[in-house]
Structures are given as C-alpha cells and as structure tokens.
Known about the structure:
The structure holds 2 protein chains of 2 kinds. By secondary structure, chain A is mainly α. Chain A has helices at residues 2-7, 11-14, 26-34, 45-59, 64-85, 87-92, 98-128, 154-165, 183-196, 202-206, 211-226, 247-253, 259-270, and strands at residues 16-18, 23-25, 199-201, 230-234, 241-245. In chain A, a hairpin with a 4-residue loop joins strand 1 and strand 2. The relative contact order of chain B is 0.09. In chain B, the strands form 2 sheets. In chain B, strands 3-5-4 form a 3-stranded antiparallel sheet. A two-stranded antiparallel sheet of chain B has the order 1-2. Chain B is α+β, with helices and mostly antiparallel strands. Chain B has helices spanning 14-26, 33-40, 44-57, 83-89, 100-112, 117-124, 129-138, 160-165, 184-199, and strands at residues 65-70, 73-78, 115-116, 141-146, 154-158. The termini of chain B are far apart. At the A-B interface, helix 1, helix 3, helix 5 and helix 7 of A face strand 2, helix 4, helix 5, helix 8 and helix 9 of B.
Amino acid sequence: MASLIAVSPAPVHELDLDLDAFEGPFDLLLTLLLREELEPSEIDIATIVLAFVEHLAERDEIDLEACGEFLVLVSALLELKARLLFPEEAAELDALEPEEAAEELARRLAEYRLMKEAAVWLAERLAGERDRWFRLGPAPLAPQPERRLAPQERNALATALRALAVPPPAVSLTHMALRFPPVSQFLERFRALLSRRRRFDFESEVLGLSRIEQAVAFLALLELRKAGEVDLSQAAPFGPIRISRSAASEREEGFEPSDSERITTWTARSA
Amino acid sequence: MDSTLRLIATNPLDQLARTIEALLVVANSPLSVADLAEAAEDDPERVETALGLLRERFSERRSGIVIEQVAGGYAFRASREASAACARLFERPIERGLSQAALETLAVVAYLGPCSRPEVARIRGVAADSAVASLVERGLISEAGRENGPGGAVRYRTTPLFERVFGLESLAALPRLDDLGASSAQIRDRLLEVASARAS
C-alpha cells in the first residue's frame, strides 16, 4: 500500500479526514480498518468522498491516477462495509470474515498492482520497439489442398457411375391385391371337423395353406374359443395347439368319449 | 592473358536458404521452422541451419531488412536504422491511441488468459467492455472459447500479432509477475509497518 501511494503522491496520501469515528490521514484509516481496530460500519464513506472532492477542488488540478486509485480503495471499503451491514445476505454469497475481507482487499490490491506494473512494462516495451517495422499486409497462407481420396481411374469411375445410374427395380405391389378368406369359412370348417372328432391339431389342419390363410384360420379358432365352443391347449410355447370340444358344447351335443379318445387324452396330458 | 583464378565456395545450403528467404518475403506473419520445412520440402534441421546463415546475412547494419525470431516463428522486418524513413511513409495503427485502460486489460489477458471480460473487470475494478473491444479491433487479442456452463462469458487471449508488435519470441518472454511488484503479504506487512510507525 505504501508503494501504491508513493506512485501517486498527492491527493490520496494528503487527504486528511475528519469523521465522527476517525480523524487523520486516509492511509491511516485504511491501515486501522485492515488491522480491525476500527469498525467499517462506523465509517461514513460519503463523507470521505466529499472530503476527497473538496481536496481536489482546493488543488485546482485533477490527477487522474490518484482519482483512479481513490475509486478502487473506496469501492473496496464500500464492499467491506456492505458485507458487514448485511451478514445474512453475505452468508449466502459465501461471505468473508472481516479478517478474510481485509486479506481479500489486500490481495485484490496486490493483484491489480501487479497488472498495473505489467501494463507499465508493456508500455515501455512498446515504446522501445517503435523502430521495428514489419509487413502486415493481407497475404494469408494458401489453404493446403487435402487429397482424401486415392487417385482413381477414369474408366473405373465411369463404370461405377453407370452402375449407380441404372433405374431401381420396380416396387412390388402384389401385397396390395391380397384377398383375405372370410373367417366364417374356417368357422364352418372347424365346426364340421369337431362334429366328427372330439379334438384335432391346428398345425395338421392348416398344413399347406398360405400364411394369410393360416392367420385367418387362427382368428376363427379364437372366435370359437370366445364363443365357448372349444377348449385350446398348448403343452409348451411353440408346441402344437390342440383343439377339443368344450365340456359345455359336448353336453349340448350329447357326445360320449370313446375308449380310443380317452387313451389319446391321457397320452396328451402325460406329455 | 593473365587471369586470376577465383575459387567460389558454394554452401550446399545456399539453395535452401534462398527458398526460405523467398518464403519469408511472401509471408505476412512469422513462419515456424515446421512451416518452412513443409513448404520447402526439406529437413527441419537443415532449415534451422539455413536460417542461421540467413540471420547472419540479414542482420542490423548489414542489410536493410533483418530476420528476427518473433511470435513463435521467423519473419523479416525493416532494420532499425531505416525506422525513421518507414515512419515518414507509414503509420502504426495498431498501437496508435492505445490507452492506459487498454494496456492494463492487455496485461491481464496476456498473463491470465484466456480470461473473460468479467474477470478483467474484477481485477481492474471497472468495466472492461470498451478496452476489450478496442484490443479485439486492433487484433491484439481474440476470442478463445467460452467459460464453462450455459451462457458462459466469452474468453480472450492474446494473438501472435501481440507478440510481434511487442517483439516477443513468445508469451514466455514476458517478465515474471513476481518480478514486477510486491505480493499481497508484502503490501499488508508494509501497511502494518506504517500503522506502527504512526502509533508510536
């Protein structure tokens, strides 16, 4: 801080303050605040600003360097005071303890000081390099050609293109003309079968039919099951589907199982 | 007829040196050894040796143009003794009117970059918008991505032109920050010394 004031000698250093809680030079006020011997909340910052402005008016000249430093210092003071005045809000903002705030103030001042010194070095460097002249004309580097493909034979390329130019095969629309056999056709067929036999295998009955016909036959089967006319059984997934008359249906029709059918039933259940 | 026999020693690198010379004349920004080797289709080590020959040939007080190592490469510039003549014919728009605020912002970006405008403002204590815009316009800094997170601020870093204007071989040629000023601990200690002296 001492060096900071030494760089800009006049107003900030000479500024004498007469506040309610403090009387003396500005740099002493800062020191006491940093040493926590003075409460920031007791300091009237507006009065400090007024004193500085009056001091500037008395000098009848404006030192921009000093004004800038004064602004930085006063804003740091203001931040310190604000943190203490609003402790709850400050906690939400990851508030700093007074000691930490003082450290932060010193750290920021040091950081700014370093950058200011760096700027001075850059300015001196620039002045020292003023006799270096070089070209800045617009001569951008030519874009590098990128050959991602290996060299190709012209005829081979033409053959490949010709193959691509062949019209695609016509789309088959045969499925649009599919005719579905009526479900009723299979209903009648299965009912007729069950009037002769008590049970049969679905696969053996639809063997040789087209896929569509097999699907419609299966729908007919489901219809019969829904109406309670048949019982369906399947010993295992993907196993043969067995269709038999339902008990209700048998009672209505007055069927009695034959001996051979009893044996088949027993065998099927055992399986 | 008497004639004097002269032995002309030809350096095997002369042809490569002439090629490099031509490349540097055409270029408007420094060319690295790798750039030169690629363009000349030659070995980088031979390029460096040829550059050594050229630097000797194109040096101050021997030639009006000088080869310098700057901004990560090699480039031609006018010799310093010709600078006054250059100044009468050309101006230096990049450096013209470079304010104190712009220099401080440039220092922050050079040392801490890539960094955003809010970071520059936090260090300097004032908004850096116009200083950053001025430096971007001059080509001394350029955008370098954004800060993490949605809506992250644009970050900036110095350009090769910055290194060239300031005559730096690279950013590593900047002086160490430790050598520039006192640390925060030193500042605090000096504050306490002043306070003790006043109290006694």
